[in-house]
TrEMBL record:
Name used for this protein in its record: Shikimate dehydrogenase (NADP(+))
SDH C-terminal domain ranges (all copies): 240-270
Reactions listed under catalytic activity: shikimate + NADP(+) = 3-dehydroshikimate + NADPH + H(+)
Gene that produces this protein: aroE
Amino acids binding NADP(+): G126, A127, G128, G129, S130, N150, R151, T152, S153, E154, R155, L216, G240
Record note on quaternary structure: Homodimer.
Record keyword Membrane present: no
PANTHER family documented for this protein: BIFUNCTIONAL 3-DEHYDROQUINATE DEHYDRATASE_SHIKIMATE DEHYDROGENASE, CHLOROPLASTIC, SHIKIMATE DEHYDROGENASE
Binding sites annotated in the UniProt record for shikimate: S14, L15, S16, T61, N86, D101, Y218, Q247
Length: 274
């Protein structure tokens, strides 16, 4: 059987093996999908051994997305823009890299939550790996404006420079959040929710009667931001569970050339997790 895996550190609690196994069962595809722990320093050797043992494809999660990018010989253009990959596909004797997080997010928002992103003003908090991997897809989805605000403003500037659409993708300083007006979509792409010591207070002025608040995390890590969104009466609050299932479906599609049904897997995880 063909071998697939997700790599990261930590990786024990990854939902990817469960999701991919469910997709494979649904499509009648025989494959093996495991979770393999690797540090950034080990990853090159671990991935090589995986390929030597029949590894055909892989997902990559924190903290390996940038390291994985450096190990690919070819990329999709969106992966090149993000400078990171979450999906590896074996092509001959080398790896081809893609990032499916952004399309996963857009699909979750537009098809599961039925949001129309076209013409929207979007605030993105954070400019790390997650932010970089979703920003281009939001722009591709036809939003009017993407305002990237990061605690460290240089990183936001870098992200926006890489996108290269100064008319639509802009940065502002974190200290100026209260002056930016309101947004129809606020995307939390920071890792603050994973830090119990983080003091994550955002101004109320960011929210209007239409605002959807999205956290790219799910579970515990999404609680703080989504609690703020609830307190601010945001119209919709969305965590990252749907994006997780949708990015997995896009990876699966590249490996197996069939798009799995995501709704049953999403519903089952939702029933278990939140
Ligand atoms: P990920 O892969 O999850 O994106 P990352 O690349 O380490 O992780 O990026 C983390 C992001 O969360 C960064 O934008 C970081 O801001 P800095 O660039 O200023 O470090 C942001 N972040 C982390 N903790 C935060 C906090 N307490 N308040 C605001 N932003 C925070």
């Amino acid at each position: 059987t063909a071998r697939y895996a997700v790599f990261g550190q930590p990786i024990a609690h990854s939902l990817s093996p469960h999701i991919h196994t469910a997709f494979a069962r649904q499509e009648g595809i025989a494959m093996e999908y495991e979770a393999i722990e690797a540090s950034a320093a080990e990853f090159s050797a671990v991935l090589e051994a995986f390929a030597a043992n029949g590894g055909m494809g892989a997902n990559v999660t924190a903290p390996l997305k940038e390291v994985a990018f450096a190990l690919c010989r070819t990329f999709t253009s969106r992966a090149k823009l993000a400078g990171s990959v979450n999906t590896l596909l074996r092509k001959g004797d080398s790896w081809h890299g893609d990032t499916t997080d952004g399309v996963g997010l857009v699909r979750d928002l537009t098809e599961r939550h039925l949001l129309d992103l076209r013409g929207r003003r979007v605030l993105m908090l954070g400019a790390g790996g997650s932010a970089r991997s979703v920003a281009p897809a939001l722009l591709d989805a036809g939003i009017l404006e993407l305002m990237v605000v990061n605690r460290t403003s240089e990183r936001a500037d870098e992200l926006v420079d890489a996108i290269g659409e100064p008319g639509r993708a802009k940065t502002r300083r974190w200290e100026d959040l209260h002056e930016l007006g309101d947004f129809e979509l606020i995307v939390n792409a920071t890792s603050a929710g994973r830090d119990p010591t983080a003091n994550f207070v955002l101004p109320m002025s960011l929210v209007n009667s239409m605002t959807t608040a999205v956290d790219l995390n799910y579970g515990e890590a999404a609680i703080a931001f989504l609690a703020w969104a609830r307190a601010m009466n945001c119209r919709n609050r969305v965590d990252g569970l749907g994006m997780l299932v949708e990015q997995a479906a896009s990876s699966f599609q590249q490996w197996h050339e069939v798009r799995p049904e995501t709704d049953p897997v999403y519903a089952e995880l939702r029933a278990r997790h939140v």
